[in-house]
Design a protein that fits this description.
Blueprint: E1 8-15, H1 19-32, H2 39-60, E2 67-75, E3 78-85, H3 93-96, H4 113-120, E4 123-129, E5 133-141
Antiparallel strand pairs: 1-2, 2-3, 3-5, 4-5
Amino acid sequence: MEQREEREKMTLILESRSSNEKLARVVAAAFFSRLDPTLEEVEDVKTAVSEAVTNCIIHGYGGGPGEITLEAELEAGELTLRIRDRGAGIENVAQAREPLFTTKAGEGRSGMGFCFMEAFMDRVEVDSRPGEGTVVTMKKKSRERQDGVG
C-alpha cells in the first residue's frame, strides 16, 4: 500500500522584539525536525530565520512595535518558510540583496542578512512593497542522511 505524504502547516505570530528572534529560530527548527534533517541543516534554518526576523525588527519596523508572521510548511521532504512584516518595505529589493548593502551602517549592520539566507537555504524569494511590508520565502530540502541514522 502506497503511503501518501501529507502537508503540514504552522503559523506563529510574534511581536517585533529582539527577544522573539530566538523563539522564531527554535520553533522553525523544531518544525523542520519532522523531516529528520542533519544537525547542519537545522543550524542552517535557524541562521536564516534569525536573519529574516532580525530584518523585520530592524528594517521593517525600525525597532518599534509591529507584528511578524512566521508561516512554515512541510511537503515532499521540503520546508517552506514565509516570514512577513507589514513595516516599511524595501525600495529596491535587488540592491538590498547585494552583499554589504545596508541602510543602517551607522548602527553596526553588516548588510549580509540576505546573503546569509541565500547561503543557508536552497531558495530565497523576497517580495516587498514600500509602506506595505516584506515577505521573505525560503525553502530547504532535507537531504537523506548519509550515516544511516534516522
